[in-house]
């Protein structure tokens, strides 16, 4: 039964100041585990502070980042709030608007719909409105509330701090409508993406596959979107806690296991499945469907997410990957069986070649 141990240990995180706040002050249910099968179907409970309905989602047995799912009833609005933790919002159902403001500055309102992605600037006031009189509006948010709550241990400070982070947000008419700025490595710095499903992607630095990173509201939480082609899977890798994946298109499965163990857990996914690998657990993604899969990942900016890891390996992510040549051959066999069931051809030869080429260049660079 040693295999059960890894996950059991992680569940011991539920006694923190953050958890106490969720249970006793927020009084909102917590969904735990490794994944949520369908974000759009999760049953929600009344959320008195926000004024709508919701649940907290605490995946991966960590208290660094959390998610919550929220719904604004038709024709209604949430209560205004501001807080000393960051928040990225992805709208999964309906349409509406959000008003953002700093004390003493004009209010700024922008409209969103299912597929919109944006961040609430740190400690700025914001209020969400449902734009429909018939349909609920539902969103999922990633925050670093657990990290902040467990550090500060003071709810009044988290929700009542007067400091204005003008480097994050100050009134400007086009804050949520300006086109954004492109940087190298497929990075787009912006504050609002109207529709992720129709956002142009650019070739990824590694395999030239459609990809994009989004830096939002000058924060330390960010997002990226990537395409996983038919008949392909990704090498195993590990990083610090807090990354949350939402599948937008396609079907397949993930495998995840604690470093040093063979207790491999499988998570089947389809559109609207969310999962979060525990701190420093290896994980890898397998597309078994007949269509390209599209993945949205919400996470800390890369270096912050390495906090849970080995400091000496900070700048050498390649050490935290399992090469295709070194992986357990069983993983590949199982994947081929799954593809065969769906009548899909295995299509990894070109990826193996590109990966060997990439590693040869990287190893040379490290050796210099
Ligand atoms: Fe990952």
Give an account of the 3D structure:
Strands 2, 12, 13, 15, 16, 17, 18, 21 and 23 form a nine-stranded mixed beta sheet that branches. Strands 1, 3, 4, 5, 6, 9, 11 and 14 form an eight-stranded mixed beta sheet that branches. The protein has helices spanning 2-10, 17-26, 145-152, 155-160, 302-305, 329-341, 349-367; strands spanning 30-33, 35-36, 45-47, 52-59, 66-72, 87-93, 95-101, 108-113, 117-120, 125-130, 137-143, 181-183, 187-190, 192-193, 202-203, 210-216, 221-228, 244-249, 252-258, 265-269, 274-275, 281-287, 293-300. Helix content is 19%, strand content 33%. Bound molecules: fe (ii) ion (FE2). Residues 237, 239, 243, 283 line the site of fe (ii) ion.
